[in-house]
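3.2 Worked example (two chains)
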Amino acid sequence: MQPESDDEEEQEPLTNVEAEAKARKEALSAFHALADDDDDDEDGFLVKREKEAEEIADEDAAYRSFLLEMGGGEEQVRRALGIADAPVTDYREDVESDADAEDEDDKEDKAAAKKEKKAKKEKLSAEAKEQKEKERRAKRAQADEDFLME
């Protein structure tokens, strides 16, 4: 009798698709076997480090400043988000009620000042629009008159 290798020689060679499928199946089974072995060890080689509260606060502050710098400053970011008139809040701070009341008064004063400033801008822009409209009408009237006089 001949060894099994002769049987393999008698079989037709695998197509590329069949060879890739076989290689993929073997690789997956090897990776799964390796993953199962790693789960059993759990020697703590890679352990996620817990961050302290101060470190988290520092990272949050750095990220906030980065976002504000990239957005063009707090006013620009608040305007872009559509919350320009909303009071500034910090969800992380725990302060006493007296400080909250003072902060709310300050925020209300700032909000009122912003509203007044916005109203002035709108009034100025409305006046500027009216002025531009008058100038446009005057130019059009002059162009019409010049055309008729020719």
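3.2.1 Second chain
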Amino acid sequence: MKQNFLLKLTICAAAVLIIIGFKTNNVFASATTGTIDSVYKYAWSENIGWINFGTASSAVSVTDAGLDGYAWSGNYGWINLNATTSRVGNNSEGSLSGYAWGEQTGWIDFSGVSINYAGEFSGYATGTVTGQISFNCSNTSSCSSSDFKVKTDWRPLSVRNSACGDGVDNDSDGLTDYPADSGCSSATDNDETNVSSGGGGGGGGGGGAVVIPPPVIKTSTSTIATSTVGSATSTNQNQYIFSTSSLPQSPIYAGFKFTKGLAYGLTGEDVKKLQEILSQYPEIYPEGLITGFFGLKTEKAVMKFQIKYNIAKKGVPGFGTVGPNTRIKLNQILSGSQISPSSTVAVDNQNKTIQELKAIIQTLQQQLIMLLNELMKKLQQQARP
């Protein structure tokens, strides 16, 4: 009898604690340990292109202390956000600091990046190789042509306990937090309930607060695909629904068009944009260098591009130069009428290789630990008198 009484008392106490916890804090795991949004997960580097902070194989997490995991550049590989000697830190209010590290990119300074009350990253990270990395299209007011940002369900500590800043649709109206929910006057408002703005006229029904619909991802042009890109499904002439692996259109491509010939030895912005497009094809331009100089590697990449699209071949005038026919194909890609044909098979093979390498590394780590343990035992035995 006594044991049954103690068991019931324990269950009741646990239930009370759970209820109190939900009533007082209403803090969900995602608000304190956040993940990256499945759509809004790309940042744009002026030198190396798109950087994915939401890969399936190495998810990035956000906590009050900082960022963990790896971001992925299709041209420069993995970027470690929590390196051994440094990490990307967080002051619990969304002001980031510290450095990320990539073998190909070197150190990247995150002190210019912040996360707001809605979980949206903004500002720039900077690196010697990457140049400026923009985390939000609002940085350059380019959202109308290229809607990209990095977003998380983590929330700053100061707004986490408020109904309008906790990342939860508390009043079940389909709108979450300030400013999306019109019932919220600020991110620290603790009531999401819409307040009526007054009754309607005779027979017209009651008036209510204006409901702000959730944002829709739109673009007037299709995406530029890369080796990690899926497909875009058109629902009408001006709207596309992107798969979670799609990239938004690059800010540098918006409104740009190739109009002049390019050849070995030339320099300038047109050459730089040519290299940026060619770098989206690893099989054509594996070096992926964005220098603005039309050198031998760029010339070789142009030759491969021309062969791929049956534009020109060896022995034909214009082979290795950007002439009228090559410009037509490049502009088709820019306009979205020709999506880059990077193979999803190559992506699958790449992911498979990564997983195999991880397994090999894990096995080697285990073997190394065993060897170190054996070495320690022998040293201890030799140290005994």
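3.3 Remarks
The first strand starts at residue 34 and ends at 45.
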